[in-house]
Design goal:
The structure is a homodimer of 401-residue chains.
Chain A: H1 5-14, E1 19-22, H2 25-32, H3 37-41, E2 48-51, E3 60-65, H4 69-74, E4 80-84, H5 105-113, H6 122-132, E5 139-142, H7 149-158, E6 163-166, H8 168-175, H9 180-202, H10 210-223, E7 227-235, E8 256-265, E9 268-269, E10 272-277, H11 283-302, H12 309-323, E11 334-336, E12 343-346, E13 360-364, E14 367-369, E15 373-375, E16 378-384, E17 387-390, E18 399-400
Parallel strand pairs in A: 1-5, 3-4, 5-6, 10-18
Antiparallel strand pairs in A: 1-2, 2-3, 7-8, 8-9, 8-10, 11-12, 11-13, 13-16, 14-15, 16-17
Helix pairs in contact in A: 6-7, 9-10, 11-12
């Protein structure tokens, strides 16, 4: 279980909610530990999780398609399982005497889970879960992001005496402070992403295409049992394209290379930026890069619990301006990271959000000049009681090839 | 442009719609060719596409975050662009005389696109697009899947004289018949997926873990410029887990290996299943596999325009039963594939959906016995005028290692 249960309980109490219903892939995985494959890789398939601290013996209820009960079993999902929908799986057809006495754990749990009643649809299963736990007159926080308009209407009309409050932001606020189990996943994917950048840059040679470099980058990621997600890798003038996707553009002398990249490990994401230069960069590029780098370093120095996000923003922007990019402007200079690539908080101007120990942040100072170049420093860190613990530990200095 | 514009126009006419609004990643990419990175890799970010055949000089309007205009430029998205939101990018700060006369195409288009007015939010940009094209009293098909409840309310109240009809199914119906450009992408990712399976099986050895085999599988996929999506790879008793995720389970003598896998290339998906056996499989496994294989082969033989999906289902199920699995049951034996892993049509019992030339199908006969083994044959094919063109051409016979 990854979730910060204490923080979730406090948040529900503060909002006078008896329960919260998660419907997005991130929130379902967060509350229940259940990674529902079709929900993550497609749009449409539904799985839900309910957290009701006071009314149930098991605080978490999981609503899962019958076709994914093998994953529920294999992932050892805790909590009460409600299944919906038909999916054919055979029991062992051999005579009982010829069957093994003990199944492996995943198959065993799967076979037990299949005995639960079929609730036919996701919303009827959710309705049953809420009824079973006597939440029919409760105040319920509802993450509506994984529900259709019809689903919401059906749910609300099934519980005319309940009060539903939007809860997507509440869950994001809870998810903002990571548990050590989450930080361990984030540290692992940050390290994998840095090693993948290094592997790609170690292989760099004149004439290699952006696509060829991307293969090496993603190849290292999958070799470390992580999955590719974000792979913005550009050369030369294409570094100015903020979301640059690898093309047939070939590496030339004096090119810059920009990475803004990160895979996921166990659904936990990395987001790291690095710059390299084929040969010494120009004085202008060096000056501007150093300013951006010092901006992030200033942020890392300043991070600790109690700091306001808006103050962190101002300090980073001011540093970049003082160090060489007078006109530097950004809408944000960082964001949380976790199950989503953009978790709370956003490090944005005027934000009164206070940093807390356990937040994991990406601090970043991207800078783009159309048609010329893009530069970017982005590091991942944990907010600790005594300051920042940087997860991207290989250093974000410009690398000269 | 990938879309089947003729089919879309006919569908709008048949539903007496003046326009259709796409909001899901698949539908936006389909209508406009625009692949909006944040919309695809996260939940929440919004991009839209409007197709209005009669009222506009440009039939397609695209609503894009300002932060993704570089992708609009680099992807040479056709149509009228409406941008929303702030994102800082600098123009060339050098004196005009020192600037290059010609920018590369992507940077050039990006710089032009930034001059468009900022509509601040996705829904206000969409509202402007609909107003500009005099759709304020039109009948509009609306794909609601990428809109929040509030978005839908705002949109409908901005156009009190328009009629909005749900259009997600309409767009899925249009997407069911692929263009040759789409088929070319699907053929490529099918071939990549088959080669990735072969690479993994070529490297199989006793003692290798499922995770180690998955690395080789995904490694080949990224080496061919595709991206991993689905990687169900299991050994032995874990082949019975239908969504089996690679674990530390090590390959043993007499194990079965089951792949149900597929990456994407240019967002077009593959979904292919293969079975291997370490040494000769048991007579029971061989008999059951052959029945499943013959079921899919029967389907491939039967596929042509005009066939009903329900009849195809019956023929495949009957074949599997006659050939050795008397009790064989399934909720479907296949589905379309394209930008989504499950496109229309579903090959399901009683379905009156008629196959059309250009549909791309996965035909599959999975079979699971809890605690014992899972077997599966799944091939990709194009419905052609004269029958099936199989895209997974390396053959789906059980491979003995």
């Amino acid at each position: 279980m990854m979730m910060n249960e204490e923080r979730l309980r406090l948040s529900l109490a503060a909002h006078q909610l008896d329960a919260v219903v998660a419907t997005s892939p991130e929130n379902v995985t967060y509350l229940s530990g259940f990674w529902c494959l079709p929900q993550w890789i497609r749009r449409g398939p539904q799985a839900f999780a309910v957290f009701a601290p006071a009314t149930a013996t098991q605080p978490v209820q999981v609503i899962a398609p019958t076709s994914t009960l093998d994953l529920v079993g294999d992932q050892m999902v805790q909590g009460e399982i409600y299944r919906y929908g038909a999916f054919h799986v055979e029991a062992d057809p051999r005579p009982l005497a010829n069957q093994p006495e003990v199944l492996d754990d995943a198959n065993q749990r799967h076979s037990v889970l299949r005995n639960r009643a079929d609730h036919v649809t996701a919303v009827t299963a959710l309705t049953a879960a809420l009824n079973d736990h006597r939440l029919n007159k409760a105040r319920i926080g509802l993450d509506e992001t994984g529900l259709s308009l019809d689903d919401v209407t059906r749910l609300k009309s099934a519980f005319p005496d309940a009060v539903f409050e939007p809860a997507n932001d509440l869950l994001r606020q809870v998810r903002a402070v990571k548990t050590e189990a989450e930080i361990s996943h984030l540290a692992r994917i940050a390290a994998t992403t840095e090693r993948s950048i290094s592997a790609a840059l170690d292989a760099a040679q004149i004439g290699m295409s952006e696509q060829e470099m991307a293969r090496i980058f993603h190849g290292q990621t999958v070799n470390e049992d992580a999955m590719p997600v974000l792979g913005c890798i550009g050369f030369g003038e294409r570094t100015a394209l903020m979301n640059v996707q690898p093309s047939s553009r070939r590496l030339q002398q004096r090119d810059l290379i920009r990475f803004d990249v990160g895979g996921h490990y166990g659904q936990y994401r990395a987001d790291i930026a690095r710059i390299a230069s084929v040969g010494e960069p120009s004085r202008e590029v060096r000056t501007k890069f150093d300013a951006l780098y010092k901006g992030v370093m200033r942020g890392i120095d300043m991070v600790r619990p109690g700091i306001q996000a808006g103050d962190l923003f101002d300090a980073i922007i001011d540093t970049v301006r003082q160090e060489g990019i007078l006109h530097y402007q950004r809408n944000h200079v960082g964001h949380g990271i976790g199950l989503d690539g953009y978790d709370f908080p956003l490090i944005a101007p005027g934000s009164a959000t206070v940093l807390e120990a356990g937040m994991v942040l990406c601090l970043e100072t991207p800078y783009y000049e159309i048609g010329r170049f893009g530069l970017q420093v982005e590091d991942m860190l944990v907010v600790r009681e005594d300051g920042a613990e940087v997860l991207s530990a290989m250093g974000s200095q410009l690398r000269v090839l």
